Amino acid sequence: MLIVLSPAKSLDLDTPSTTQHATTPRFIDHAAELATHLKTLSPAQVGALMSISDQLAVLNVTRYADWHPDHGTARQAVMAFDGDVYTGLDARSLDAGALDWLQRRVRILSGMYGVLRPLDRMHPYRLEMGTRLANARGKDLYAFWGDHVTGALNADLAESGATAVVNLASEEYFKSVRPRLLDAPVITPVFEDWKGGKYKIVSFHAKRARGMMARYAAERAITDPQQLKDFDRDGYAFDEAASGGDKWLFRRRREV
């Protein structure tokens, strides 16, 4: 199986990496094209485009200005992203074998880089996949990336021998994938908590659970997605009766 994750808005650029292994993003030329375009935008334009504060707009304009194709000293993606998914994954505490599994079996969808392997080096950036950034290829980043993301996943499916894609990404990011063109079926785990008398998706917990599931798979070197049904971290359990088709429900009955 091949797992896909979303990136994170927040970054940790200070905590030391726990591995020296690093690779170069495959779509670095495409990222350079985006960076060149982003360098032309003012803080006010970035703020309006991304609906972010003036302070964040200035920070990211500075990042775009500093972006360059040489990634030799940049931080690995899985060591840089610092959101809820990556709290659940906690890559820094994984051993070398589990990190190697991540590198072979996990892909991070990215507005800036298209598809990242966990140990691909990346420069700090903020560019969500849903950003309506008009570009030479169309009105937004979905048009910019076109079939490239799907093509990259198909290449990785072929190389790894994986027979399924496990979608642990958000809806915004997975929209960059064209499932009908994938060379494997897609399985989408969904994490629900008992709240207010019913099961529902609680964003913070669901994001963290996605990272925990990726970690669970890495620690066990899982290749058969059926084994993910045994996932039991933090009180979640597979609910076969509520699941159907490619949608697998994992639930925990406790008030959150």
Number of domains: 1
Name the structural class.
alpha/beta
Q: Assess the beta-strand content as a share of residues.
A: 15-25%
Number of helices: 10
Q: Residue ranges: pLDDT <50 for 5 or more in a row?
A: none
> Into which percent range does the helicity of residues fall?
25-40%
Shape summary: globular
- SSE run: EHHHEHHHEEEHHEHEEHEE
Task: Note the main sheet.
Answer: 8 strands, mixed
CA-atom Rg in angstroms: 18 Å
Verbal overview:
The protein has about 260 residues and is of the alpha/beta class. It has one domain. It is built from ten helices and ten strands. Strands 1, 3, 4, 6, 7, 8, 9 and 10 form an eight-stranded mixed beta sheet that branches. A two-stranded antiparallel sheet has the order 2-5. β3 (about 105-110) and β4 (about 115) form a beta hairpin. α6 (about 95-105) crosses α10 (about 205-220). The mean pLDDT is about 95.
Secondary-structure topology with pairs:
Layout: E1 2-5, H1 28-38, H2 43-50, H3 54-66, E2 75-76, H4 77-80, H5 84-89, H6 96-105, E3 106-110, E4 114-116, E5 121-122, H7 141-145, H8 148-160, E6 165-168, H9 171-174, E7 186-195, E8 198-200, H10 203-220, E9 237-238, E10 247-252
Parallel strand pairs: 1-3, 1-6, 6-7, 7-10
Antiparallel strand pairs: 2-5, 3-4, 7-8, 9-10
What's a quick, concise take on this entry?
This protein is of the alpha/beta class and 256 residues long.
Keywords:
256 residues, alpha/beta, 36% helix, globular, YaaA, UPF0246 protein HH212_23635
